[in-house]
UniProtKB/TrEMBL annotation, chains A, B:
This is Maleylacetoacetate isomerase. Belongs to the GST superfamily. Zeta family. GO terms for molecular function: glutathione transferase activity; maleylacetoacetate isomerase activity. GO terms for biological process: glutathione metabolic process; L-phenylalanine catabolic process. The keyword Isomerase applies. The gene is maiA. Transmembrane segments: none annotated.
């Protein structure tokens, strides 16, 4: 398997954690999102991803995109350890927590969006930072409330084993810290992220540990 | 079952189509996203959705959020007609197509984001419209390329039966049309959306058909 990805990309980081938890080896193919105007726009890469986004996972003839779809695919083919609960309600709960971040925080704050807000919409760095912080706080305060009140919250977002929700949370926490967002109002999220970082699959997948890290 | 939703919300529309295809009756509970400063911010609703987002599906003690998670839950409990293929690769393909819209187009263009860009970031209506169009064109041109080149594209996004991908595409097409986006460059998307609208579940779920439509 080859993972086309970028060390700092949250979506890439999610898939790296999944591959690590499943114990699946892979070739790391770096796609630098800002060097030379963005390697994701090169024609060879766009034949894999017309979206010009990372990650893409390849396995022989199979080529997959969208991190959450890739992770569910890996979980279906390699069920141990499971990244989703066995029951439909548990699965829906975990998927919803992951989508709370993957749909309602991350897309607003990724590189291409911040670039558009600066280059095209003409927002100052201050206004772009305010935008970034606003969506993290909006999303994280709802998620904190949800997890603080749910009886299914355990050591991790759902129970005492990591799931798709934790694989989505940790990269978003990392990203927010890079943008100096104060996360002290989110003790449950902080506790879970810390618990995750006790697992080798999470630490090995961290941006700073990747071959293209600068 | 009760669906807390809003006629014009794309995420609500997706779930209404799923309920229709499955033949599941539900009570329609309107949550008006702009009246009185937004009914989604009322404390009673926030006890269901700390995110202050629609839709929420309730069934007895069960309360579910995030449209794609709700649809997968319905599909697991009521497998006919299936909204995802049976094989892992097919499932990953359909999920990725749905996420192409649900993560990379829709979150950038929904009401709360357009409101922030106007009220807080101070963008003119012209600049907000340019933003809206930019992300629809970015997402739809990649999706058009992907579907035009894939051997799994049929009458619908994947094969000849509607899937989660179509349930996500149609509301986004509707939304783009409301913002006067020219979709003539996307003949495959247009053809699929037209095919979907031949099915009663899609037309009955359309915004204009809902009790809170204005």
């Amino acid at each position: 398997m080859q993972l086309h990805n970028f060390f700092r990309s949250s979506a890439s980081y999610r898939v790296r954690i999944a591959l690590g938890l499943k114990g699946l080896p892979f070739d790391y193919i770096p796609v630098h999102l800002s060097r030379d105007g963005g390697e994701q726009f090169a024609p060879a890469y766009r034949s894999l991803s017309p979206e010009a986004l990372v990650p893409v996972l390849r396995n022989g003839e199979v080529s997959l995109h969208q991190s959450l779809a890739i992770i569910e695919y890996l979980d279906e083919l390699h069920p141990e350890p499971p990244l989703l609960p066995r029951d439909p309600l548990g699965r829906a709960t975990v998927r919803a927590l992951a989508l709370d971040i993957a749909c309602d925080i991350h897309p607003l704050n990724n590189l291409r969006v911040l670039k558009y807000l600066g280059d095209t919409a003409g927002l100052t760095k201050e206004a772009r930072d305010a935008w970034y912080h606003h969506w993290v706080h909006t999303g994280f305060s709802a998620l904190e409330t949800r997890l603080a009140h749910s009886h299914t919250t355990g050591q991790f977002c759902y129970g005492d084993q990591p799931t798709l929700a934790d694989l989505t949370l940790v990269p978003q926490v990392f990203n927010a810290q890079r943008f100096n967002v104060d996360l002290s109002a989110y003790p449950v999220l902080g506790r879970i992220a810390q618990r995750c970082m006790q697992l080798p699959a999470f630490t090995a997948a961290a941006p700073g540990q990747q071959p293209d890290a600068q």
